[in-house]
């Protein structure tokens, strides 16, 4: 499985960016695809996740209402639409994916993010800088 993240850049506070995670090597029919971010000097944070089997999503409280995750099945690509960006959103953003069979339906969404992070495949990061 290979993942290619793109779409990062410099944006002013209040602006928008759309990140893309293009996946190759598998068909995203039964996968959890997640976005993580890591700012300098800070721990990695799970941002959002989508289950490709049924489209259910998860968002961290820090981005809820501002970010939206979606999938283009024809392109085997997952997008992260980021609106009303804040300086604290500045980070390197990574996408990762793991087969849904690895993710128990009984665990919490946050725990599911940990499973994807620990057992999934990762792409390289894309830098998002929010600054005036």
Q: What does it look like?
A:
- There is one protein chain.
- The relative contact order is 0.30.
- It is built from 1 helix and 11 strands; from the N terminus they run βββββββββαββ.
- The protein is mainly β and 132 residues long.
- Strands 2, 4, 5, 6, 9, 10 and 11 form a 7-stranded mixed beta sheet that branches. Strands 1-3-8-7 form a 4-stranded antiparallel beta sheet, with no helix packed on it.
- The mean pLDDT is 95.
Distance between the termini: 37 Å
Order of helices and strands: EEEEEEEEEHEE
In terms of DSSP E residues, the strand content is: over 45%
- Radius of gyration, whole Å: 14 Å
* Largest beta-sheet details: 7 strands, mixed
Short key terms for the protein model shown above:
132 residues; mainly beta; seven-stranded mixed beta sheet; four-stranded antiparallel beta sheet; 1 helix; 11 strands; 47% strand; globular
How do you describe this structure in short?
This protein is mainly beta.
SSE layout:
Blueprint (H helix, E strand, L loop, with lengths): L1 E5 L2 E3 L5 E8 L6 E8 L6 E7 L5 E3 L7 E6 L4 E6 L8 E9 L9 H11 L1 E2 L3 E5 L2
Parallel strand pairs: 2-11
Antiparallel strand pairs: 1-3, 3-8, 4-5, 4-9, 5-6, 7-8, 9-10, 9-11
């Amino acid at each position: 499985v290979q993942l290619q993240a793109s779409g990062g850049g410099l944006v002013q506070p209040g602006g928008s960016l759309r990140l893309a995670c293009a996946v190759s090597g598998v068909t995203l029919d039964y996968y959890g695809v997640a976005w993580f971010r890591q700012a300098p000097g800070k721990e990695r944070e799970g941002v959002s996740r989508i289950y490709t089997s049924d489209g259910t999503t998860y968002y961290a409280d820090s981005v809820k209402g501002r970010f939206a995750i979606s999938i283009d099945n024809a392109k085997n690509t997952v997008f992260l639409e980021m609106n009303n960006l804040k300086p604290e959103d500045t980070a390197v953003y990574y996408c990762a994916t793991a087969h849904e069979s690895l993710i128990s339906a009984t665990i919490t969404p946050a725990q599911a993010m940990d499973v994807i992070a620990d057992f999934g495949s990762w792409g390289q990061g894309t830098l998002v800088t929010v600054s005036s």
